[in-house]
Amino acid sequence: MRGISITFIMLLLCACSSNLSKTYNISDFNKSYKSYDLNVFWNEKREGEGVTIEGVVKNVYIGDIKKLEITARIKHREKKLSEKTFSFFPDVLRPDHILPFKFSMLIPEIKDYDIDYFYRGYLVTDEIELIFGSFK
After folding, report:
1. Strand order, beta sheet including 38-47
2. Which pick of 9, 32, 112, 118 has the fewest CB atoms within 10 Å?
């Protein structure tokens, strides 16, 4: 009887954890980039001496994307001031799936700066192919 109770509790826990996946409303993000392999939606929020970058990526390719990373580079008059890379976990993004990202970076006391973004990863179909892109 005790074994049946433990099994029942484990099944309930598994069922509950599968319902925790969050849905994302793309209209909540004011910036976007779309390509043949990846769509990115994000917000940049200036907070004191830094900026917080928060968004989601969606795999729009027919195969898995592995080891995906997004890098943000803050520039002032073409000079790099700061750079940060976000690595996604789990490291496999299945077709039509979405993963969130969020990171913060320090910005010196300047008003006119640009943030350039880069991504890289590997497409997995019959072969493994490096993908990369850049956007603002």
Report:
1. 31-34, 38-47, 50-59, 98-106
2. 112
